[in-house]
Amino acid sequence: MAVVRDLRVLLRFRNFRRLLAVRLLSQGADGVYQIALATYVVFSPEKQTSAGAIASAMAVLLLPYSLVGPFAGVLLDRWRRRQVFLYGNLLRALLAGTTAVLMLSGVPDWLFYASALCVTAVNRFVLAGLSAALPRVVDADRLVVANSLSPTAGTLAATVGGGLAVAVRLVVSDSDAAVVTLGALLYLCSALVSLRMAPALLGPDPQLVQPRLRVALAGIARGLVAGIRHLTEPARRDAAWALASMTAMRFCYGALTVMVLMLCRYAWASGPDEGLALLGLAVGISGAGFFAAAVVTPWAAGRLGPGPWIVACAAIAAVLEPALGLAFAEVPLLIAAFVLGFVTQGAKIATDTIVQSSVEDAFRGRVFSLYDVLFNIAFVGAAAVAALMLPPDGRSYALVMMIALIYAVVAAAMARSARRRQGAGP
């Protein structure tokens, strides 16, 4: 298989292997931690969860640390990224352990959310840094392949982590705190693996490094403005369009996630444990879609181009999402989970490639952090819209059709942008 051959080539790069190991352990821990939070908030037997409660939880966990994103980007362009991975994962291990203690202590919900917020705030630095560092460990000719395999492998690691969390909770111990502790151990392992890379390896360039916090923070406002201006330059127009399209597709994915959560909790299952098992199955099938996207995207994006591949992914979703979703039955929606995993990851790989190839290294950290902010705001906004539209059992024809329309608009807008670029010529 071509993907196996490409992976073998990439794995010959020693520092790519090490960066990939940091990603796999870190995102595997993310998957464990996120499922632990979901089960604590949604699938606890004593909680009667509504779509509004899910949306509120997402807002508490995602919106505040979205404000951290732009600041993280400026700092990633001034701090050594290897050190961000080391200290960031050590801090997350400590904070996750604290969250486990709070789960066992019966503290008020706001204190639990505050602890979880701190863990996910640090996550902005780590994920944006992983994307910004990737061009430092592979050559330009292999960047598309690296973008297919590395972030997708991280997503699969998060999926495996989520499945492991479900297994630990259902089989080993009916304890969300035990699952969070497992996540803390994986964060610690990721921090230790990062020590195998030289501090200066992942950038930024030495002349841009600002080791003093005060000096780095002083330039944040100017750095943010410069990053946005850089992204809006004509030479970066492809990157701006790709980010806008991916944000809209993230909105769709967020709304459908809330719908599936409600269906698993109330429509398809007789109790919380059965609903949690169904959610685990849906996550696993979606993960298979991510893997399929990693296999297909290098070939498809190579033949069509990254932009047209985003068009194809959005168009596929626009057709198949209502065809599979309007029945609100388990099997069609599980197939839809695969399709949406495939198109979302395929579009993300293409977007990452466009951004990395269009944005200069000195701006890459802040652009990817803004990318994360757009992702989170879209996801929370989608959860809020879903909360308004979904009935208690999770079945909403209007929501399914609205999502299909958004996918269609994304496909049309990206196709129109591509035609304008072709008409403008070189």
Q: Write the CATH homologous superfamily.
A: MFS general substrate transporter like domains
What would CATH call the class?
Mainly Alpha
CATH fold call: Growth Hormone, Chain: A
User: Helix and strand string, N-terminal first?
Assistant: HHHHHHHHHHHHHHHH
The main β sheet shows up as: none
Q: How far do the termini sit from each other?
A: 35 Å
Gross morphology: globular
The share of residues in helices is over 70%
Ranges where pLDDT stays below 50 over 5 or more residues in a row are: none
DSSP summary: helix tally: 16
How large is the share of residues in beta strands? Answer: under 5%
Count of the domains: 1
Radius of gyration over C-alpha positions, nearest whole angstrom: 21 Å
Give the total of beta strands. 0
- What is the overall pLDDT average? 82
Architecture (CATH level 2) name:
Up-down Bundle
Q: Structural class of the helix and strand makeup?
A: mainly alpha
Structure description:
By secondary structure, the chain is mainly alpha-helical. The protein has one domain (2-424): MFS general substrate transporter like domains (Growth Hormone, Chain: A, Up-down Bundle), CATH 1.20.1250. The protein is built from 16 helices and no strands. Helix 4 (68-76) packs parallel to helix 6 and helix 7 (143-172) packs antiparallel against helix 14 (330-358). The protein is globular and about 60 Å long. The chain starts with a helix and ends with a helix. The relative contact order is 0.16. The mean pLDDT is 82.
